[in-house]
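Lab notebook, bench 4. Continuing the backlog of folding jobs that were queued last week. Each job is logged with the same field layout so the records can be merged later without manual cleanup. Today's entry covers Diaminopimelate decarboxylase, a 413-residue chain. Filled in by technician R.K.

JOB TYPE: sequence-to-structure
TARGET: Diaminopimelate decarboxylase
LENGTH: 413
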Amino acid sequence: MKNTDLIAIAEEYGAPVYVYNADKIISQFNRLSNAFSDVPNLKLNYAAKALSNISVLRLMNSLGSGLDTVSIQEVQLGLLAGFAPEDIIYTPNGVSLEEIEEATQLGVRINIDNLSILEQFGTKHPHVPVCIRINPHVMAGGNSKISVGHIDSKFGISIHQIPHLLRIVELTKMNINGIHMHTGSDILDIDVFLYASEILFETARNFTDLEFIDFGSGFKVPYKEGDIQTNIEELGQKLGGRFKEFCKEYGRDLTLAFEPGKFLVSEAGSFLARVNVVKQTTSTVFASVDSGFNHFIRPMLYGASHEIVNISNPEGRERYYSVVGYICETDTFANNRRISEITEGDLLCFRNAGAYCFTMASNYNSRYRPAEVLWYKGHSHLIRARETFEDIVRNQVDHSGLFQPRADQVIAK
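JOB STATUS: finished
OUTPUT FIELD FOLLOWS
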């Protein structure tokens, strides 16, 4: 997309606004598919939590993607978007047995990550196929908050608990049809990923009726020009070859599954915000925009560094700015960042805004959540309208008659 396209979208739909480039999503999906083209059975299950707009889900479905879900609501969204139940895998964490049973009734694939629920579910539903999430105790990922495969993680069944796991399967006569892991996000070291994969292969040998092995995802994408990223092609060559070897050892071809989220949608997203105030202090020049961490929380939550471009003046002289929001507490997108000279009214573009950005947006400070726009085949399509005041109060119950105004009091001195 060109800057002029983004500016036109902001003028038509207002700012702040999220924009997603469908062409980039499609190219990322094809890139990952091609990297593992030598694998006979490959299944990419898009991680809905990254960006769950129903139009994006429909796009993924049209590409032949499956869907990775972590809540019953995401399962329902996937079904509404047209995914077949068997193309949806439900991988929750810490949910009730009742929610898992609800997902079972909808016909989706079930992935269980703790021994307690595994035993309860297997006792009540021994004939329902179940995938098991393993914790390989491998530290991977770019931030402790998104590293989920280490020994202190709440996710998965520890590899040290495999004997207990096998005992539950034996006693309940459960049907285990898949093995799964997810080590974390922003994985750079392919060797660490391959090491964890060997643990998964070794675990898989304990089960005779597997249909698939799910290796999770977490592939690193570049956040700026020249940034390092996961070498997907190298991973495809090494892991793809090893997977085929394992299938020969296992005795039949299994499906190699991934659950990419950020890899597919991060680079496709742009977040546009307009500059309200340029404020010079004794030490800093602040560019204050008409947004905040209520719309775009990753820099404050994860310390994420998103490239920020002044698309109203892309060729201007660069100066140092701290880009901040309008939320009534510390609300910083970037500190002392070199950006083309900013004046009030300019439009700033935050890159890599496709994953875990709008889905984490809130109404903090009673602000409206922004609109979402999909750029597809050279045209913009509104896929979520900007919220209004009616949206803020829709589910609130106003007991206006319950409270009476306080009578004026005169205090004598």
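OBSERVATION: The chain has twelve helices and 18 strands.
SIGNED: R.K.
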